[in-house]
Automatic annotation (TrEMBL):
Protein name listed in UniProt: Molybdopterin adenylyltransferase
GO molecular function terms attached to this record: ATP binding; molybdopterin adenylyltransferase activity
EC numbers, comma separated: 2.7.7.75
Organism: Novipirellula galeiformis
CDD domains: MogA_MoaB
Function: Catalyzes the adenylation of molybdopterin as part of the biosynthesis of the molybdenum-cofactor.
Protein family per UniProt: Belongs to the MoaB/Mog family.
Domain MoaB/Mog: from-to ranges: 7-153
Pathway membership, UniProt: Cofactor biosynthesis; molybdopterin biosynthesis
Biological process terms in GO annotation: Mo-molybdopterin cofactor biosynthetic process
Keywords from the UniProt entry: ATP-binding, Molybdenum cofactor biosynthesis, Nucleotide-binding, Nucleotidyltransferase, Transferase
Length: 177
């Protein structure tokens, strides 16, 4: 069975310059390692909050690296340099607004500033891109909410079959497909 490739893209001016250690990328990696039951290969990248650079990284991860899923962290807020959702929209053929809606809803249980994230998701070819906020603590909070729908979403775009450790997270497939 082919290993499922998953892109992990940290978008942070300071982490990309080495001013602080990236904790977002490793948090996404650890989360996936904890819930996935299938063989997978992480493809990590760090870029600054620059729209062209984020777009380039997303295109490379989807098209060249053949990642079925790309999870980004950072750059989703209202600040001038926060442009991850714009870069995501520019490279996707189809937007999946339900991801952002659900992640903001669950994040509101943790922080009143959850509505400041413009995080979204979209489809490029056979890849799903999902944005998460930059706070490392937001990663598990958001992924716990949306991950149950991710394996079926990837089935629908002709991606590989993703299996999860059911004791940790159950992937929902209609009619138990
Ligand atoms: N990759 C990361 N690793 C560790 N902490 C992070 C990371 N990204 C963000 N943070 C923390 O979460 C906060 C909010 O994230 P945000 O994406 O708004 O960063 P920022 O303030 O725009 O700065 P930068 O882009 O330089 O990370 C940051 O100020 C930082 O404390
Ligand atoms: N779960 C969760 N969502 C969250 C946060 C958080 O700490 N936890 N921070 C909020 C804040 S303060 C901001 S400004 C926005 C955007 O964050 P970003 O620019 O780091 O992506 O995400 C929001 N969503």
């Amino acid at each position: 069975m082919e290993s499922i490739r998953i892109g992990i893209l940290t978008v942070s001016d300071r982490a990309s310059r080495g001013e602080y250690e990236d904790r977002g990328g490793p948090a996404i990696h650890d989360y996936l390692a904890e819930i996935l039951a299938c063989q997978w290969t992480p493809v990590p990248r760090i870029v600054s909050d620059d729209v062209a650079g984020i777009q380039d990284a997303l295109v490379q991860l989807c098209d060249r690296e053949r990642c079925s899923l790309v999870v980004t962290t950072g750059g989703t807020g209202p600040a001038k340099r926060d442009v991850t959702p714009e870069a995501t929209e520019r490279v996707c053929e189809k937007m999946m607004p339900g991801f952002g809606e659900l992640m903001r809803k669950v994040s509101l249980e943790h922080v009143p500033t959850a509505i400041l994230s413009r995080q979204t998701a979209g489809i490029r070819g056979s890849s799903l891109i999902v944005n998460l906020p930059g706070k490392p603590s937001a990663i598990a909070e958001c992924l716990d909410a949306v991950f149950p729908a991710i394996p079926y979403c990837i089935d629908l775009i002709d991606g590989p079959r993703i299996e999860t450790k059911t004791e940790r997270l159950v992937a929902f497939r209609p009619q138990g497909k």
